[in-house]
Design a protein that fits this description.
Number of helices: 2
Structural class: alpha+beta
Order of helices and strands: HEEEEEHEEEEEEE
Radius of gyration: 46 Å
Shape: globular
Number of strands: 12
Distance between the termini: 145 Å
């Protein structure tokens, strides 16, 4: 009986030993997860800037109105380099601005005084009744009116009534022209100016 018990214990020990040697250790697998960051759209609304309004400037001498200043670049004469051209809405007055002169031409002659003529010898007898060209034929001389046939100005970009434009034909010279229903006025703020309408022409100190 004792021998049988020892045999059973011995067999039980062998079973335990066999179970121990059959176990397998499995290493845990490693999983790599890649995360891509996504930018979150800004929730701040963009604010559009309002368009820049043209500056308002006082009118010419004796004119209490204010005018909307336009860029000189709007009136570049495409036919001649370095020259500007503009017309009034009526189409009756067109002005050309160059480095040496500013002349406005009317479709109909404007009566002027003898003192307002350009005193060109060949035309002087007719300038008082048939003058169509007015302004500075030479910036270094007073503005005046003359007949000067053969210089017909084509209509240019329109300077609307209530608008003004500033030119710098020379480095030391500024001239501002104003479009009015009564006509056109151009002034050098530091010197002289002139006004032109169907009723007449005037040259004056500013």
């Amino acid at each position: 009986m004792r021998t049988a018990v020892m045999i059973v214990v011995a067999m039980f020990g062998l079973l335990l030993a066999g179970c121990g040697t059959d176990q397998t250790t499995v290493a845990p697998s490693t999983v790599t997860v890649q995360v891509t960051a996504t930018a979150t759209p800004s929730t701040t609304p963009s604010t559009a800037r309002p368009p820049t309004q043209p500056a308002a400037v006082p009118g010419a001498r004796g004119d209490n109105s204010h005018y909307s200043m336009q860029p000189a670049g709007n009136f570049i004469d495409q036919s001649v380099s370095g020259r500007y051209r503009f017309s009034l809405p009526s189409g009756n007055i067109t002005c050309i601005v160059s480095t040496s002169s500013l002349v406005c031409q009317t479709h109909q002659p404007v009566p002027i005084a003898q003192s307002e003529t350009c005193r060109i010898p060949d035309y002087q007898p007719y300038e008082t009744t048939n003058a169509k060209n007015f302004g500075w034929l030479d910036y270094d001389k007073p503005a005046c009116g003359t007949i000067l046939q053969g210089r017909y100005f084509e209509v240019g970009p329109v300077l609307e009534y209530g608008q003004a434009v500033s030119f710098e034909p020379r480095s030391n010279l500024q001239i501002i022209c104003y479009s009015r229903s009564a006509g056109v006025a151009c002034e050098n703020p530091a010197g002289y100016g002139f006004s032109l309408a169907r009723e007449g022409f005037e040259f004056y100190p500013v």
